[in-house]
Design goal:
The complex is a heterodimer of chains A (233) and B (423). Chain A has 233 residues and is α/β, with parallel strands linked by helices. Chain A has seven helices and six strands, in the order E-H-E-E-H-E-H-H-E-H-E-H-H. The radius of gyration of chain B is 28 Å and the shape is globular. Classes of the chains: A alpha/beta (233), B mainly alpha (423). Chain A: This is Rab-like protein 3. Chain A: It comes from Oryzias latipes.
Chain lengths: 233, 423
Amino acid sequence: MASLDRVKVLVLGDSGVGKSSLVHLLCQNQVLGNPSWTVGCSVDVRIHDYKEGTPEEKTFYIELWDVGGSVGSASSLKSTRAVFYNSVNGIILVHDLTNKKSSQNLYRWSLEALNRDSSPTGVIVSNGDYDREQFAENPVPLLLIGTKFDQIPESKRSEVLTRTAFLSEDFIAEEINLDCTNPRYLAAGTSNAVKLSRFFDKVIEKRYFTRDPSPMAAFTDRKRFNFKSLHYD
Amino acid sequence: MSFLVDSVIMFTSQVLFFGFGWLFFMRQLFKDYEVRQYVVQVVFSVTFAFSCTMFELIIFEILGALSSSSRYFHWKLNLYVILLVLIFVVPFYIGYFVVSNIRLLQRQRLLFACMVWFTFMYFFWKLGDPFPILSPKHGILSIEQLISRVGVIGVTLMALLSGFGAVNCPYTYMSYFLRNVTDGDILALERRLLQTMDMIVSKKKRIAMTRRQMYQRGEDQNKQTGFWGMIKSVTSTQSGSENLSLIQQEVDALEELSRQLFLETVDLQSTKERIEYSKTFQGKYFNFLGYFFSIYCVWKIFMVKFWSQHISFILVGIIIVTSIRGLLITLTKFFYAISSSKSSNVIVLVLAQIMGMYFVSSVLLMRMSMPLEYRSIVTEVLGELQFNFYHRWFDVIFLVSALSSILFLYLAHKQAPEKHMAL
C-alpha cells in the first residue's frame, strides 16, 4: 500500500448546518442517509490528485476533520475542541444559507480555529473582533461552503448570493453553494468541482511546496517535521 | 380612583416583566440562533410576565400595598390569563411546531396541531381523576378544575427539581466533593484522544485507498444496499470488500472510543474550571451559601417544625428570587445542551410551559410557608382546593427525588475515580 503524504483540513460551522453530510459527500461520493449529532470530532479521508492531468501529478490524502458544536458552548467544551486545531493546513467554513446567524457565527469560528494554530506564523488576535488585515496575512487557505441551497426560493436567491459574496470577500476565500443531499452539485466538470479542486491544490501547495528558491530541501524538511508532530500533539 | 392607580402600577410592572423576558430570550436563550417565529418569543415573554406578576401580588399582599379589592381583582385576572396561556395557547403552539418539523404532515399543519391539542386536553382532564384534589360540589367547567390539574403537574415538577437541587447544590459547591484534577491528567487524556483519532485516520486511509484501487480495477464494490445487494454480497467472492467491512467495524469501534474520550476530557476540563472558580472570591461566597442551603435542605428532608413564622417569610422571599434565577439558569443550560436550529422553537415553548406551571404551583405551595394572616387571600382566590393534599404530595415527591438523586450522584461519583485509575 503506497504511503502518501497528507494534509489536514478542518470543517467548521454551527451545529445543524450539514457538515457531516458535506464530509460524507466529499469522501464517499454518496449522500448521508441518517445524519445525527456529531459528538467530538469525526474524521474522513479523501484521496486527491494534486495537479491532475499534468506531469507533476501526485496523489495526497486529505483528512477532513469535522468538529461538532456551537460557538456559544461552555468553555470546557471549547478548550477540549482546541486539541483538534493543531497543525491545520486548510479550513472549510460551512454555513446554512437559510440561517443568517450561522453565517455570522463563521467569523467567531475562524477566529477560534486560527487563534489556536501553533505554527510560528499563526494569527494572533488581541480583542476577538474581526480584522480584515489579519485575514490578508492568514497562511491557512479558507473555503466557504453554503448548504441547503435547494431550500431557498427562486425569488430570494439573488439576495442570498449577494450576502455570501460579501462573506467570501471578507474571508478572502472562494465560495461554493450547494445542497448536501444532491451529488449533482459536485459532479466532475462543474464550476463547484473546479473550485474545490483548486482549493485542495492550494492547501497542498502551501503545505508542501513553498516559494523558496530551493523547494526540494524545504519539502524534505517539512516532511520530517510532519512525521514528528504526528505523534506529539 | 385608587383602583385606577393600582391598575396602572400593575400594568407598568407587567410591561417591565415582559421586557425582561424578551431580553432574556434574545440575549441568553436565542443568542446563537435566528429568531424566525416571533410568536414564540411573544408567548415566552407573556408567560414569564404573568408568572412574575403572581409573585409580585404575593409580596404586595404581605406588604399591604394597594387596596385589597383591587388586589383581589388583579389576582383573578392574572390567574385567568395564565391558565388560558398554559392550557390553550402554549400546548397548541407546541403541537403546531412539532408537526411543522415532521415533513409528512406539513400540508395539514393546523389540522394536526388541533388534533394534538385535543389529545393533550384529554390526558390533562384524565389527570384529575386519581387525585383527591376537589370537593365534589364543584361543577365541570369551574376554574378550580383547571387550577387543580395544573397544580398537580406543577407541584410534581417542583418537587422533582427541588429534591434534585437540594442534593446537587451542596455537591456542586462544596470543595470536599471536588475530585483532584491536575493539568497532567487532562494532557494525558488529550494525548489518548489524539492517538485514537490518528488510528481512525490511518484505517480510513486504508479503506479509501483500497476502494480507489478496486474502482480503478473496474470492480463494482460500491455499497451493497437493498435486497439484491445482500444476495450479491453473499454470493460474491470479493475478498477486497470483506476486508473492507472488517476494517470498517474496527473504525466504528474506534470512533465510539474517541467519542467517550472526548466526553471524558470535557468532563475533566469542567471539573478543573470548577476548582479554579471555587478559589475565587465569588466561588467562596457561593460555597458559603451552599453550606447554608444544604443545612436548610437537610432540615427540610427531616421536616422539623418551624418556631417562627416570620423567619419563614424571609426565607420565602429568598426562595422566590433564587428559584427564579436558578430556574432560568437551569433552563438555559438545558436549552444549550439539547437544542438545534430545528428544534429550538419547540424547546423554548416547552420551557415556557414548565416555567408557567412551576410558578403557579409555587404560589400554591408558598401558602404553606406564609404567615397565617396572609394565607386567606390565596385560599380565597384559588377556591376550595384541598391544599393539604398538595403539601403532602410535594413532600412525598421531594423525598423520593432527593433520595434517588443521592443514589445517582453517589454512583456517578464512584465511577469517576475508577475511570482515572484505568489511565
